Records
---
Amino acid sequence: MGKAKKSDKVIYLCDGKKCCRYNDEVKQCFKELVKEAGLKKNVSIEKMKCQGMCKQAPVICIHKSECVGKVSTKDAKKLFEKHIA
Ligand code: FES
């Protein structure tokens, strides 16, 4: 996977063919949440390969522990509160 950043938490956004068409809004939302929480140094947002769940695009994983599909910006907020904030 190449360069691993030293972050406490990582939010992975699937960047496969399908998800990359749907994940812009969610990506933006996570970026803002991280910024608002002042966690830019502790949380990084990375891309990951297709997870084989394309029907559920967009797919995201937080810290590789919980992978979820059909993520809306509302879900993004919930996930962020549960796992990051
Ligand atoms: S493109 Fe995201 S799961 Fe396949």
Note: The beta strands are 9-14, 43-48, 60-62, 66-68.
---
Amino acid sequence: MKKIILAASVVALIAVAIGVKSLSGSDVKDSMQAMKKNYAAAMSSTDMSEFSRYAALLQAAAHDASQQSYDGSKPNEIIYQAGMLELNQEMTALNQAVAANDLSKAKSILAKVNDSKKKYHTALGE
Ligand code: HEM
């Protein structure tokens, strides 16, 4: 009987953990998908009002990603957070170009974001 209660408790705990994880919102993968979508939309924007809308959504997704942890291993977590910091710095430069209404500069900054993406995806083996 004790064994059954123990097994039921373990199953209940796992169910709660899965529930909490799904309620806690998006994971890295979801944030990355949102970044991809809004990055592409910003790059194909033809005016600043359109660009800035997608740039804001890209930044919101990047912010979400920065709040998540990678895989729990210390070396990867350090690389991941370094990449998120770099992304955040690029977003600051991006906002300056948006504020200056300079669409071509803003797009060239986003092209650099793509280099960071490649660098960190490679570093993390993604
Ligand atoms: C604008 C820049 C970036 C874009 C557009 C982007 C896009 C993506 C996409 C499309 C995926 C695949 C998601 C899937 O499997 O469905 C991905 C995965 C991933 N990216 Fe990025 N990424 C960017 C920057 C970064 C940076 C700077 C880092 C690290 C600091 C990073 C870390 C990761 C990781 C860890 C995954 C694997 C997620 C998982 O499968 O759980 N990405 N990214």
Note: Confidence is low (pLDDT under 50) at residues 18-24.
